[in-house]
Amino acid sequence: MSEPSGISRADVAHLAGLARIDLSDAELDRLAGELPAILQHVAAVQDAAGPQIRPMSHPQPIVNVFREDIVVPGLTPDDALAGAPASEDQRFLVPRILGED
């Protein structure tokens, strides 16, 4: 059954499935009636700025607040293994947990 708005209950069910939202039959019926009005409001907001305003993702400019990557020397294998309970061939030695070789 298609609604006069052009958005059917099946369309709402399909969108809900894509969004992985479980809706009851009553919710599907209600949203089939409400969705056209919601879309009209979204369109009105999109048209409010006019063509002279560029679309943006944030109202304020975004700057990278992370520090710059600086390469520093890492640990030597001996330093890294200094606190290990056991090591072999510059690797941590751990108990075998699988019976495979």
From TrEMBL:
The keyword Protein biosynthesis applies. GO terms for molecular function: asparaginyl-tRNA synthase (glutamine-hydrolyzing) activity; ATP binding; glutaminyl-tRNA synthase (glutamine-hydrolyzing) activity; transferase activity. InterPro entries: Asp/Glu-ADT_sf_sub_c (IPR036113), GatC (IPR003837). It comes from the Bacteria. Gene3D superfamilies: Glu-tRNAGln amidotransferase C subunit, N-terminal domain (1.10.20.60). Keywords: ATP-binding, Ligase, Nucleotide-binding, Protein biosynthesis. Belongs to the GatC family. NCBIfam families: gatC (TIGR00135). Allows the formation of correctly charged Asn-tRNA(Asn) or Gln-tRNA(Gln) through the transamidation of misacylated Asp-tRNA(Asn) or Glu-tRNA(Gln) in organisms which lack either or both of asparaginyl-tRNA or glutaminyl-tRNA synthetases. The reaction takes place in the presence of glutamine and ATP through an activated phospho-Asp-tRNA(Asn) or phospho-Glu-tRNA(Gln). Heterotrimer of A, B and C subunits. PANTHER family: GLUTAMYL-TRNA(GLN) AMIDOTRANSFERASE SUBUNIT C, MITOCHONDRIAL (PTHR15004). This is Aspartyl/glutamyl-tRNA(Asn/Gln) amidotransferase subunit C.
